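Write out this protein's structure.
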Amino acid sequence: MNTAHTPEGIALFIPPGYDILWSLIVTVVIGFFFYKYLLPKMNAILDERSAKIEGGIALAEKVQAEAAQAKAETAAELEEARSAAAGIKDEASADGAAIVAEARTKAQAEAARIVEAAHRQIEAERASAVVSLREEVGGLATDLASKIVGESLADDARQSRVIERFLDELDRDLGPDATAVGAAPVGAADETQGEA
């Protein structure tokens, strides 16, 4: 009869000795390969990854510092551009004011020149009108005096003296700006009679 011992109770869970031995041998072989080949490769991969992460962090910090510096430079350039624009604006305003002042001065000078030319022209026309009026009044006075006296005042020298005396008296009576000469021929006629 075959008397094989069948384990009972807790012994059911404990493997036989040869299973433990072979399991231990396989575990040692796997552990050896793990520590000899697999673990160094994993460590190398982890070190490489760690270096990449640290490099990435350093690069990010460097980029961030460069960005902050670029931002500061941009802000400084923007402020400088604003101040330059303000200076250009002030200069343009000053130039505009100078141009307006110069144009105003030129316009005033031109207006003064035009007014002066107009005064000269008016004065010339007035003088011409006075001469023409003197000649007409003198001629009328001579004709009137000739009719009153009854003789001709054809003598040029006498006629000139009579006209000059009449006009001088007229200037004294009416003033230099007198324009009315309607009442004067009577006096001239009286002078002509007195001379005759």
